[in-house]
Amino acid sequence: MIYESTVGVPDPPSALPGYPGPYPVGRYAAALRDRLRAFTHVAVEGEACGVRLGGGPNVYFELRDRDGALPCAMWRTDFDRLGLPEGALCDGTQLLAAGGLDFYPGGASASPRLQFRVRDLRLAGEGDLLARLARLRRELGAAGLFAPQKALPRSLLPRRIGVVTAPGGAARRDLVAGLERRGWRGTIVWADVPVQDRRAAPAIRRALSDLAGYAAVEAIVVCRGGGSIADLWAFCDEGLCREVALLAVPVISAVGHETDRTLIDDVAAVACSTPTHAAEAAVGVDCKRARGELLAGATRLEGLARGALAGRARALATASRAPREHAERERRALHQKAREMRAASARGVTERREFQRRVAATVIERKRIASRLSAAREHDALLTAARRLARAIARASERSAAALRGHAGALRAADPDRTLERGFALALDRAGEPLTSAAALRSAEAFELQLSDGRVPARIDPEEEPR
Amino acid sequence: MTDPNSPAPNPPASYETATERLETIIARLDSGQAGLRETLTLCQEGKVAIEVAAGELEAVDRGLEELRLDELIARLESGPATALAEGRDAR
Fold it and tell me: In chain B, how many H helices and how many E strands?
């Protein structure tokens, strides 16, 4: 009885005849878990089914075969440690799972679960090989062995190529055909090796070493036709791949078909999908085309050389004509400038004339307006002056009339006629001029006496003249 | 890429260097920037490069020769000088 043997307490009195118990179920379940865990750990084999990788702490799947099934759980940390390639564990994968039984007793709100707790896992058959390949690839990559071959210089046109392959295989024919298509007819050093069984990897290693060391090849092609990963396993051999990685001659791999990728593909300088591609990788140029291109290059070079000379000769001839042409150009330019200048000066004169005319018209107009204003002002001034003059004249006339009247009075008083009227006589010479002295009368002898009512001739009688 | 202006005193050592130099020379001449003296020098150098490249092409046009590695090694073991000489001739 599980409970008794585990806990070591006597069975309680039975409630049901023939059955010990009742026991608390949780204690019974815990005792069951302990008993199951004590089962011997084993490896079981079967097909994976219902794989749930998820994101939780466990990876779940079932292992099945024709006769039964087992629910399995594996801690994610254990699963990740395997380093399986992505998708390696999927429904249908044949597995070897190592571990032991476990029982989760559940609880008030959790269901119990029986499972096989997997501690280690191997993919059986091809799956196992792929897993090993993935692990090897990681190790070699981490060791930096993918780079050295790719850093090697590769000749575009090797004269001697080593080929490691199976004797009489189709890969061999394809490679030769590929090289011939390239127009390459150099030297091939064949290294015939087994390419499939356990002798293959050591034989390939030796061949590579000999080709690189003795045969003075410039590139080595390793090729084999397609097959399963197990068939191609020799090309995933760790020792072989490490040897290839450190070889001083570039290795071109063409193993299997396009879908296959063996470890040698990773370490080689170039990985090709087919032997034909390997031929193209080994001989970087299409020799037939290269010959044609070289001929074209030679022709081009000659043409360029001739062209350069002819071009310079033409340049020299042009240069010799240059001064005359330059002078002619200058002369034409000068004429053109002169014409332009004439036209411009004619335009200038007309414009200036017009401008002056406009200026004169403006000035005249301004003067006309100014003179009109001035004339008006002058007219007014004149008018004023005339008035003042008229007044002045009037005043002057008045004054003159008064003076005249005074003078007329004075004159009338002094008038000889008035004196004559008063009885005086005026002696006049024959010319009518007054004789105002006695001497003048004596010298005149004859004279006239002007009286108020007329003239009387007179003469001095010398006898009566007092002596 | 080699500077087209720099003189190349030695002939190219391989087909690749020869063709690369030839392309550089033709590009330089095509550009029309090379002077007369440089043009003549480049043409001369180009001819040498063509000869080298043609020689390399000729070397892989003498007819496919097929050797067997085990025979080569057997010869090496019997007379190292013979095999080594053969290896050197092939280069």
Answer: 4, 1
